[in-house]
Amino acid sequence: MNTESHFETKISSQELALTDAASSQLSRLFSEVEDDEVEAIRIYVTGGGCAGMAYGMTFTDRRTAFDRVLDGDGFSIYVDAVAMQYMGGAEIDYVTRETGATFVFNNVFQATGGSGMCGGCGAAGRA
Q: 96-116, pLDDT tens digit by residue?
């Protein structure tokens, strides 16, 4: 019996998808970075109250041993293994609204079975 565990480092498009708009915008943003030490875009997940988790992105200068990687056209995305548990099946889109353009995380509740409904505690979950 093989007891070795295997840590898959590549993120598949079934686990995390990027729309064409999001991919184009991430590629553009990454190409404008003037800091040579920035090597990827990190997606992170933080507690967001009863309505779910809050999702965000930032630039990063290092990959950890616990990161999974999604390679795009001219950029890479790092997601640590814990955050990836909340991302399974999610899609990142880039949309323009009256309030401005922004990245949107769709289908984020697919991974955790959450409903996205707020019970009124005052903490705002954003996706």
A: 999 999 999 888 765 555 444
Distance in angstroms (rounded) separating the CA atoms of residues 96 and 116: 22
Give me the residue label for tokens 């955790």.
Answer: 112
Q: What is the mean pLDDT of the chain?
A: 82
- Domain assignment present for 87: yes
With residue 41 as reference, give the H or E element that holds it.
strand 40-47
Residue 126 has which token pair? 């954003």
Q: Kindly tell me the burial class for residue 118, based on how many C-beta atoms sit within 10 Å of its own C-beta (0-12, 13-18, 19 or more).
A: middle
Contact 39, 76 (CB under 8 A): yes
User: Is residue 116, in this structure, part of any structural domain at all?
Assistant: no
For 36, the domain range is 16-110
Q: What pTM was estimated for this model as a whole?
A: 0.78
